[in-house]
Design goal:
Layout: H1 5-15, E1 20-23, H2 31-44, E2 46-50, H3 56-70, E3 73-78, E4 81-85
Parallel strand pairs: 1-2
Antiparallel strand pairs: 2-4, 3-4
């Protein structure tokens, strides 16, 4: 689902107070990390992820791998922190603006 600019702005506001739920270590994206990501997105819909590594290209590659495997949307990326959103179709918790 492609998020509209007003929805992204709304989600960024909600994510401001959140702490990172998922921390990527030196080993990068592992099956365990992907499992935790799925669980966190199912539980919270909107999460922050802290990416490890000093190399920006490596962080972008890790984030791309996380987004593609979870089918989540990237709301925002600042430095080593990324905000991901995926709607829980069974029990939606966040009501997005329509426009």
């Amino acid at each position: 689902m492609a998020l509209k600019p007003t929805q992204i702005r709304y989600l960024r506001g909600l994510a401001h107070a959140l702490k990172p739920v998922l921390l990527l270590g030196g080993k990068g994206v592992t099956p365990g990390v992907l499992k935790e990501l799925e669980q966190a997105l199912d539980d919270h819909e909107l999460i922050k992820v802290r990416l490890a590594g000093a190399d920006r290209a490596a962080r972008v590659a890790e984030l791309t791998q996380l987004v593609e495997s979870s089918k989540a949307d990237t709301v925002q990326t600042i430095g080593k922190i990324a905000v991901l959103y995926r709607r829980n179709d069974d029990q939606p918790q966040i009501a997005l603006p329509k426009k």
